[in-house]
Input
Amino acid sequence: MSLQVIDASVVYPGQRGRSSTEALHAVNLTVEAGEFVVVLGASGCGKSTLLNLIAGFVAPTAGRIVLDGQNIQGPGADRSVVFQKHALLPWLNVRDNVAFGLSLQGRGKAERYKISEHFIEILGLRGFEDAPVYTLSGGMQQRVGIARALTCDPKLLLLDEPLGALDALTRERAQELILRVWDGSGKSVLLITHSVEEALFMGTKLIVMSPRPGRITHTFELSFSRRFLAGQTARSVKASADFIALREQVLQIIFADEEAA
Ligand SMILES: Nc1ncnc2c1ncn2[C@@H]1O[C@H](COP(=O)(O)OP(=O)(O)O)[C@@H](O)[C@H]1O
Ligand SMILES: [Mg+2]
Output
């Protein structure tokens, strides 16, 4: 998998006499196989627009998005999306929610359940297969959403603040789980988050965006997740001196944008 966002701009037309919004201006980004790209930036800087562009939900006003040599024309099974507000089907149980994307692909029930089994296992949902999803905690519901996204075997997983509504402890557990699922899978991830700590901990590459117009202003290579995957505890990685120094540097960039708003 190789993704290129090339000089992409998005202008939303103004509604009812209001002026138009340039949500993205000439953005360039490359995502290679196995990369974990995290996106930070003040509210309204175009993070979700960038993700929706790559998902194929929004078309660029200028520029193009190329996935494995082909211009993206719309959504596809090679990309899966998880939003902060999970889009689960409350009347279905965990198993049928996880298998839902496969039923959209027209796969038979036996095959759907067989594939879903694996992701129910790795996301720690074993024992809850028959529970209706509305009976689960927020953290478990988000894991169902991630399991569902993975069943379609996407090359690129697009996550728009998927952990934003979780309490601190559940969120840390979910970060660790996502890293373990990603590690060695060869899949690429694009994760949007409001948490600088989460971004630094999870990504192999960090991009920081600024608003009006939305654009990428900084890029950092990261290797903190490798320390965790090599056996260091998440807390000790997050408490290390180089982690804290970079966290403060990135916070200053974002605070400067928030103050200018
Ligand atoms: N569908 C839309 N129509 C008009 N304006 C939009 C639409 N979606 C987003 N915007 C505007 O585009 C800008 C970027 O939005 P968004 O990509 O959601 O930013 P972020 O996810 O970083 O908060 C904001 O000013 C927002 O109000
Ligand atoms: Mg957003």
